[in-house]
Amino acid sequence: MSSKRVIFHVDMDAFYAAIEQRDNPSYRGKPVIVGAKPGKRGVVSTASYEARKFGIHSAMPINEAYSRCPNGIFVQPQMGLYEKVSQQIFDLFRKFTPQVEPISVDEAFLDMTGTEKLFGPIEKSSKMISDALKTEQNLTGSIGVAPNKFLAKIASDCNKPDGITMVPFEREKILEWMAPMGVNRIWGVGKKSAVVLQTLGIYTIGDLQRVPLDLLIRHFGKLGNSLFSLCRGIDERPVAIGDAAKSISREITFDRDSSDRQQWRQVVYELTQDIAQRARQNNIKGATIVFTWRLPDFSRHSKRTTMTQPTNLAKVIFEQALILMESVHDRSLRLIGVGISGLTNEVQTDLFSGNDGQERLEVSEITADTIRSRFGIESLKKGREIKSGDKHSLRMKCNRGTIE
Ligand SMILES: [Mg+2]
Predict the structure, then answer these.
(1) Cα dihedral 123→128→134→137 (10° resolution)
(2) How far apart are CA 255 and CA 252, in angstroms?
């Protein structure tokens, strides 16, 4: 493996809640829960560290959070604000290296290889970034420093909040560092996968390191290869920059400015179908859904939301875009656009995929693509996904912007 690389993973601490506490001094030191309105359906997006003491965490139903901490400060997310802060933070990172790969609204990989001449050794440059977050943004982030992305991502989670964690750079030391960790720390190993591994007597990464490659391939097919590499801390993927190029979007200008929300919904639906199809054709998925609009005075505005799982499913993109659209209070629009970004063509789903709902939906949408291309778009258009009563699609998880 290329031990010459230096990769930082920076993950902001309780991002949405921390911004709320920063901007509202009366929230400081108190349990702040950013998410849906108590009494309604919906989940916690982010809980402040004070709220976590009550057992509240991201993706918990908001009503459960409320019953655990009725005196907490419940705040609805201000996505526009968080997104703005996010951009400022990524700009701050770019002062240290041009190689910045945002992976969600509050975390990014930084390729810091060769920056020693400018900023000194990694102990110093990581501290500089941590300090800059405090002085420039009054926020904290946790940083993992490692020879690759996989290890850096594990490390940033080891000393939260406001921690800097150095992974060893020598091969043997890396094996030792990882050995005691649970297998669920490995990308692609979700809860269900961990259960499958447990039935084979594999609990820790150290256990996995002792399993020969051919056995892993026998049990897990091609994925056996990546398990074999990852449990040894081997990951050659580059830090991918070029955020702008990695997005798909489409917009429609109304013939006449429209204040008909039903028409807006229909447009969002149409745009979503197109984007999802293009994403699937290119075998890519995006985690951030963007809703753009222009007012009659030509001013342009946008809102976005970032999901925990990247998607190219029309149904999911549509649902999220619609939520964003419904939060627009302007009365009359000139243009509507929808996009997805933060695209990835990596497989990051659970290896053993307990998520049949999602898979089935993917299959059905790919089938729909085929029919469309053979018989024309009109054959499949009439709002069937909007009304879909399909149990699998309803069960599908789609957490809105849950942030740790
Ligand atoms: Mg975070």
Answers:
(1) -130
(2) 9
User: How many A from CA of 164 to the centre of ligand 1?
Assistant: 14
Q: Which long-range contacts (CB under 8 A, 24 or more apart) does 196-201 make?
A: 196/352
Give the DSSP H/E element, type plus range, for residue 305: strand 300-311
One-character DSSP codes across 374-397: HH-GGGG-SSHHHH---HHHHH--
d(CA 76, CA 182): 34
Interatomic CA distance for residues 133 and 126, integer angstroms: 11
Interval between CA 106 and ligand 1 midpoint (Å): 5
At residue 383 the predicted structure's pLDDT band, cuts being 50, 70 and 90, is very low
pLDDT score of 34 more than 50 = yes
Do residues 181 and 205 touch, judged by C-beta distance below 8 A?
yes
pTM of the shown model: 0.65
Catalytic residues, which ones?
Answer: 107
Helix (H, G, I), strand (E, B) or coil at 67: helix
Angle at 204 between CA 203 and CA 208, to 5 degrees: 90
Measured at the CA of 247, the angle between CA 46 and CA 240, to 5 degrees, comes to: 80
* 381: nearest Cα among 277, 256, 251: 277
- Whether residue 144 contacts residue 158, with contact meaning beta carbons closer than 8 Å, is answered with yes
Tokens of 133: 């977050």
Q: 121: CA distance to ligand 1 center in Å?
A: 25
Strand partners, 286: 311, 343
Angle, CA 78 vertex, CA 24 and CA 75 arms, to 5°: 55
> What pLDDT, in 10s, does the model give residues 143-188?
999 999 999 999 999 999 999 999 999 999 999 999 999 998 887 7
Q: 86: phi > 0 → left, psi -120 to 50 → alpha, else beta; which?
A: alpha
